[in-house]
Amino acid sequence: MKVLTEATLRGEFRHSIPKEFCVSPKTIITPSARQYLKDKGVQLVYEELDGLTHHQGKEEKMASRQKEGNVYKPLRHRIIRLYLSMWIIIRVVLMKRNQNI
Questions:
Q1: CA geometry: angle at 26 spanning 30 and 67, to 5°?
Q2: pLDDT tens track for 5-29
Q3: 28: left (phi > 0), else alpha (psi -120 to 50), else beta?
Q4: Paired strand residues for 43
Q5: Distance between CA atoms of 47 and 43, rounded to whole angstroms?
Q6: 91-94, long-range: CB within 8 Å, 24+ apart, which pairs?
Q7: What was the pLDDT predicted at 32?
Q8: Triad 74, 22, 16: Cα angle to 5°
Q9: Residue (of 47, 36, 39) closest to 12 by Cα position
Q10: How many Å apart are CA 56 and CA 34, to the nearest integer?
Q11: What is the rounded CA–CA span in Å between residue 35 and residue 32?
Q12: In terms of DSSP H, where are the helices of 1-101?
């Protein structure tokens, strides 16, 4: 996993600033690096695993998920479901423990 920082971008863009910058989907991009790209007008492009590239705007990702029938569920819904599942498991374990006493 690679981390992309503003300092790295400044070094790469020392001589010329491209219109697009390609990174791996596994690359971690720091907030300052994102802001630097935005300030310079550089569009961030993620590489696909098959070697193709595509633009990763939040709106585009949500629209493509909705077109494919995948409903976008925010992270908090997943966390709530996980919390409730854990709560039920703990409750069952405690009830069984009380029955064995």
A1: 105
A2: 999 999 988 888 889 888 888 888 9
A3: beta
A4: 20
A5: 13
A6: none
A7: 92
A8: 130
A9: 36
A10: 13
A11: 5
A12: 6-12, 31-40, 58-67, 75-100
Q: Which two tokens stand for residue 93?
A: 């374990």
Helix (H, G, I), strand (E, B) or coil at 34: helix
Within 8 A by CB and 6+ apart from 59, the residues are none
**Amino acid letter at 23?**
V
Q: How far apart are CA 82 and CA 99, in angstroms?
A: 26
Please provide residue 27's backbone torsions phi and psi, each rounded to the nearest 5 degrees. -75, 130
> Whole-prediction pTM value?
0.48
Please list the residues that pair with 20 across neighbouring strands.
43
What is the token pair recorded at 58? 């939040």
Q: Are 2 and 24 in contact (CB under 8 A)?
A: yes
Confidence at residue 2, expressed as pLDDT on a 0 to 100 scale:
86
Residues in the chain: 101
Structure tokens, 82:
């996980």
Tokens in use for 31? 């907030």
